[in-house]
Amino acid sequence: MNEHHSMLTRRRLLGAGTALSLFRPALWAQDNRPTFRVKVDMVVLSFTVTDSKGRYVNGLKPSEFRILEDGILQKLTTFAEGSKPPVQLMEGGGTRPLDTTEADSSRGGISTDAFVGTNVFVLFDTSNYMYRGFVYASDAIADFVRGLERADSVAVYSFSRNLSRLSPLNRERNNVLEGLRNAVAGDDAALYNALLLTLRDAAKVPGRKVVIVFSNGPDSASMVAPDDVRAVAEDEGIPIYVISTSDITRDPVSSNVFRRLAARTGGKSYFARSWQKQVEAFEAIREDLGNSYTVTYYPQPNPNEGFRKISVEVVSDVGKKYRISARPGYRPRSGV
Question: What is the pTM of this model?
Answer without folding.
Answer: 0.83
